[in-house]
Amino acid sequence: MTTDLPPALIALARAAASEADPRAVFRAAEVANAALLGHRLFTILFVVPGGAEVERIHSSDPVAYPLTGRKHMGPTPWGDVVLKQGRTWLGNGMDDIRWAFYDHELIARLGCAACINIPVREGGEVVGTLNILDAADSYTDRDVATAEVIGGFLPGALRRAATLAAATTRD
């Protein structure tokens, strides 16, 4: 039996295995997601050791969602689901977006009302999140499975990015 894998997914697998620069892996993940699911906004965050802060390290829209350093993650229902329990979250519609995100008005201005948040795990520990947003009702449970495959290629790059960020803050 032969399985034809999407070229963008193959490129992501190769980048994850061979790229020392995590940004190349994140770009490959964005390209794979665009080819397989589509998005209006695609971001990646890493969880700072200790879990109280996250840092955006990739953004398809650096004007609206820049790479601006760390932010404190207070206790939220979304954080409990994705960051603490390590469960994927699918939101469809502005009620879901308002429930999950304090910046829901900006998300709406970008034309987004559907979201998949993938907790990226390594050894069972959440090391980051993959965040994919598009128009209302853009994503299904099947799309979540595809996004989880994309997220599965990210732990090594997230660890390298966290190490680089820690070295930068020490300098």
UniProtKB/TrEMBL annotation:
Q: Read off the InterPro entries from this record.
A: GAF, GAF-like_dom_sf
Residue ranges annotated for the GAF domain, each copy included: 38-152
- Superkingdom is Bacteria
Q: What is this protein called?
A: GAF domain-containing protein
Q: What is the lineage of its organism?
A: Bacteria, Pseudomonadati, Pseudomonadota, Alphaproteobacteria, Acetobacterales
